Amino acid sequence: MSIQASSISSARVPSAPKAEKIFNLGPVAIGWGLLLAIYAGFRLYQGAFSFEYGLDATSPEFATYWITLFQIEVPLIFGSGLCIWLYLWFTRDRDMDNMSGETELKRYFGLIAWFMMYTFSFLWIASFFGEGDATWHQTVIRDTALTPSHIVVFYACVPMYIVFGVSSLLYATTRIPAFARGYSVPLIMAVLGPGLILPNLGFNEWGHAFWMTEEIFSHPLHWGFPILGWTGLALGGLFIQVIGRMAELFKEVGGPADSADPA
Questions:
Q1: Mean of the per-residue pLDDT values of the chain
Q2: Within 10 A of 36 (CB to CB), how many other CB atoms are there?
Q3: Based on C-alpha coordinates, what's the Rg of the chain?
Q4: Distances (CA, A) of 82 to 3, 31, 79, 199
Q5: Nearest by Cα to 169 from 109, 237, 111
Q6: pLDDT tens for residues 125-140?
Q7: What is the pLDDT of residues 20-73, one digit of tens each?
Q8: CA 193 to CA 225: how far, in whole Å?
Q9: How far is 184 from 5, CA to CA, in rounded Å?
Q10: What angle (nearest 5°) sits at the alpha carbon of residue 129, between those of residues 24 and 157?
């Protein structure tokens, strides 16, 4: 069953707005900057070493420049993600019933910040690195699943947006009453759908071991990637839930000021 963002009662006593900011774009801007630096670094690394050291998976140079990168990025990204997920879980709110309207509103802004990071990272694979992988396979015949293109797009970029997606899901379910008390179908679709692209990679590689479909991108073997990626459009439904509840909270938090006697 999906939740309705307006299902949480607004009967609590309105809280007077405080001077501190409800939403701070600074952490998001810093996060975007760091991600941009990481993605630009990956692209520059590909440009420098893909064709010179990435065409023969059996060469010592391939092991030095590409297998080493693979062995570093996978445990680093998933290890960081595990630390974030554990932190979100162990610091969860255990008393949401007594949450003030202002705190709840701040947490909705916090959820939006997580999804700003998620969508920023997802767009890089859905467009730039995804299309880069397509052009790579139109140019170079695959000799292993660990190509210079795959090592970046599937084993670095996909894990990074999975980390942000699962973090968004955990943040919502451990800190926001509406998502803690019910199941949001748009939220689950927007996070788990694109996340399933990573296991779909196994099916893709199994298929390429039997059929030469490198330049036929409309082949049924590839249908899973766009279909799972399109589930990210469920973010639209999620924001309808979020915005509806935030509109109620804005009225509640601003209640005393709005109802004050002008005299």
A1: 84
A2: 12
A3: 22
A4: 27, 18, 5, 18
A5: 111
A6: 878 888 888 788 778 8
A7: 567 788 889 999 999 999 999 999 999 999 999 998 888 999 999 999 999 999
A8: 10
A9: 9
A10: 55
Calpha distance 181→96 (Å, rounded): 10
Structure tokens at 88: 């979100």
Q: Which residues pair with 2 in a beta bridge?
A: 183
AA letter at 158: V
User: What string of H, E and C letters represents the secondary structure of the chain?
Assistant: CECCHHHCCCCCCCCCCCCCCCCCCHHHHHHHHHHHHHHHHHHHHHHHHHHHHCCCCCCHHHHHHHHHHHHHHHHHHHHHHHHHHHHHHHCCCCCHHHCCHHHHHHHHHHHHHHHHHHHHHHHHHHHHHHHHHHHHHHHCCCCCCCCHHHHHHHHHHHHHHHHHHHHHHHHHHHHCHHHHCCECHHHHHHHHHHHCHHHHHHHHHHHHCCCCCCCCCCCHHHCHHHHHHHHHHHHHHHHHHHHHHHHHHHHHHCHHHHCCCCC
Contact by Cβ (8 Å): 193, 234: yes
Tokens representing residue 99 in the block? 């949450």
- 72: amino acid identity, one letter: I
Question: Which residue do the tokens 């979100």 mark?
Answer: 88
Look up tokens 């694979």; give the residue: 125
